[in-house]
Amino acid sequence: MLNFEFKNPTKIIFGKDRIEELPKEIPANAKILMLYGGGSIKLNGIYEQVKEALKDFEVLEFGGIPANPEYEILLKALKIIKEQGVTYLLAVGGGSVIDGTKFLSSAALYKGDDPWEILSKAIRTEKGMPFGTVLTIPATGSEMNSGAVITRAETREKLGMGGPGLFPEFSILDPQVVKTLPERQLANGITDAFTHVLEQYMTYPAGAQLQDRFAESIMQTLIELSPKILKDPSDYEAASNFMWCCTMALNGLIQKGVPTDWAVHAMGHELTAIYGIDHARTLAIVAPSHYRYNFSSKKEKLAQYAERVWNVTEGSVEEKAKAGIDKTEAFFHSLNIATSLSEYTENYEGTAAVIAKRFTERGWKGLGERKSLSPSDVEKIIEMSY
Predict the structure, then answer these.
(1) Angstrom distance (rounded) from CA 138 to CA 189
(2) CA distance 75 to 51
(3) Half-sphere exposure at residue 336, Cβ-oriented, CA atoms within 13 angstroms
């Protein structure tokens, strides 16, 4: 097991009807900017619950944060923060709203002239404006971590940011919201969480037995729950376990003491930036090809995964490993998630070269758990994903 440090300061408030507890978590004199997305919270009752809970606070609102939080739109919210003297941020939404709020938390205190530098120069945020979240879409785990990804349509870029100053102070998780979500979002959430676990697990054996078992249990639970959630999202027990899986998949716990990959995300982000494909679906496009391309270096963990998660007990290490990849792809298909880029766009030819060039121009130092994948490797993996 590798050396590690672990600290997660986010307070989780989980269960039915917990939004009413918001006033206990926010300073009494706070001037709040409430941030949300396309308006679904006004249809599912969440908006009214939040407004009622905050009736004794001064609350400004900023809606319209898109599914991939867009930099230019966030700059409008940043202007409100600075001009209106906002002191506290509240994200009410899914991962995109929370990620956008994290950017604003950082940008509100940033001393430079161009907030995009936080992303383009990978500036670590040590202190941000305090914020909390009310989670409405389980998927990204952003409600209990300090990372975010922001899109800039103007340059067709999607870049990450983070730092210890970007943990939410609290996150309210009410599984009752799951019943309001359409099937596409549910499938995306399952895929996103599952791939988050794979990125932290599918590397090479590091002797971290407990972390492996944690990761495997999250994946097993998602596999078991997915038919129930898609069939009946109002099943509170299934919804509760689904929501907690999504949070636990990326709150830092399962990555401690082990190598992590994240190449699938790096490549997937480019597909979203270029084509606007849902984040989770880009992960499903890239992951199977990534594992097949890097088969020799990942086969031990692939075989372990196949045996423990998918109950593949027959065959050699190589045979089990190949079965693990096939089972993963079949799982995505069971969620009605396509795994080839050509199923999303007719203009896929040349995409691999474009993405490889982007990595080269950024001075990319290598992808994967060993930082050994070059832009040319990326090009081959994307081509395999066509």
Answers:
(1) 6
(2) 24
(3) 7
| Under 8 Å between Cβ of 128 and 106 | yes
Domains 11-176 and 183-384 share a fold: no
Contact, 1 vs 258, CB < 8 A?
yes
Q: Residue 351 corresponds to which amino acid? A: T
Architecture of the domain whose range is 11-176: 3-Layer(aba) Sandwich (3.40)
Angle (CA) 278-65-162 rounded to 5° is 75
Per-residue pLDDT tens over the stretch 137-171: 999 999 999 999 999 999 889 999 999 999 999 99
Identify the pLDDT of residue 133: 98
Q: Summarize pLDDT for 345-368 with one digit per residue, the tens.
A: 999 999 999 999 999 988 777 999
Which residues are CB-contacts of 149 (< 8 A; sequence separation ≥ 6)?
Answer: 69, 99, 158, 159, 160, 161, 269
β-strands 31-35, 88-93 pairing: parallel
Write the CA distances from 146 to 103, 125, 291, integer angstroms: 10, 9, 27
Instruction: Please write the tens of the pLDDT for every residue from 214-251.
Output: 999 999 999 999 999 999 999 999 999 999 999 999 99
Alpha-carbon span 341 to 10, nearest angstrom = 37
| Domain limits, the chain | 11-176, 183-384
183-384: in CATH 3.30.1070.10: no
* Distance from C-alpha of 131 to C-alpha of 133, rounded to nearest angstrom: 7
CA separation, residue 300 to residues 79, 99, 291, 295 (Å): 51, 34, 12, 9
Tokens encoding 3: 């050396």
